[in-house]
Design the sequence.
């Protein structure tokens, strides 16, 4: 069980902060998601910001793109830390679901969030 | 087709390079010149994940890059050569001339560096290194994306 499981949202520009704010507004759940921006960062600076947001873990890292500096920083953290799965293509539905389902392990929470995020992408 | 862009960017492969420059230049390969990355299979696998399958990526140390430069320059596909810092680009320029132009695309804040552009922070020594590069016949400009204006080196002083 990972009752203290947190989500760290890493993005280009101000997207992560806006998404976290939106999830808090929708869900009323605060203090679970932590935004990290790559703005003005070289790779080392992103990794530092990310490490601060992750803390002692466990955590799920949500990244905007499946490549690029945010993704690379997340994967480097994933390489050195256990219980730190990375989910790419972050969207609001997966984050909203995540804040209500953090009782599982980080891996289970990440798989569920990714599935929920994918389910939300539809054409009408 | 010569290497169409020589870029210094501490993020190496990322969105601005692959999409911002790669698409309009119709890039077929990226030569990533970095001694550390060249010695790490794990880092190479990571950077490959950031590139679409139709773009080939070569990883090389500075010494290997100097040897491979003629091959890259005669490749029929447009290519981008990337380094993460100024010394690596300067070393490549010295070992494998000519390099007509260098693009400073992203050097971010670190202790001792000061703001020159929102995406370019330099120490005074780094600025002098770029001046030396230009004095040796390589034009140096800063430009994050092809849709923005190139900024001449002297404007970064």
Sequence:
């Amino acid at each position: 069980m990972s009752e203290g499981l947190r989500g760290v949202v890493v993005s280009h520009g101000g997207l992560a902060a806006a998404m976290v704010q939106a999830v808090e507004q929708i869900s009323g759940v605060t203090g679970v998601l932590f935004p990290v921006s790559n703005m003005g960062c070289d790779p080392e600076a992103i990794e530092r910001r990310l490490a601060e947001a992750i803390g002692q873990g466990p955590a799920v890292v949500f990244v905007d793109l499946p490549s690029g500096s945010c993704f690379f920083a997340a994967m480097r953290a994933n390489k050195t830390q256990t219980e730190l799965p990375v989910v790419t293509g972050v969207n609001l539905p997966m984050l909203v679901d995540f804040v209500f389902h953090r009782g599982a392990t980080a891996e289970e929470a990440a798989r569920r969030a990714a599935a929920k995020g994918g389910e939300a992408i539809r054409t009408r | 087709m010569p290497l169409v862009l020589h870029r210094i960017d501490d993020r190496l492969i990322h969105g601005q390079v692959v999409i911002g420059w790669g698409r309009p230049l119709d890039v077929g390969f990226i030569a990533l010149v970095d001694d550390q990355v060249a010695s790490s299979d794990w880092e190479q696998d990571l950077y490959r994940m950031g590139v679409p399958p139709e773009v080939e990526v070569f990883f090389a140390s500075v010494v290997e890059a100097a040897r491979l430069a003629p091959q890259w320059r005669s490749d029929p596909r447009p290519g981008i050569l990337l380094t993460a810092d100024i010394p690596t680009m300067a070393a490549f320029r010295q070992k494998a001339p000519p390099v007509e132009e260098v693009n400073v695309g992203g050097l971010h804040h670190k202790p001792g560096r000061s703001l020159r552009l929102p995406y370019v922070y330099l120490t005074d020594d780094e600025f002098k290194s770029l001046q030396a590069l230009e004095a040796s016949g390589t034009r140096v400009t800063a430009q994050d994306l092809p849709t923005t204006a190139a900024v001449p080196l002297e404007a970064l002083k």
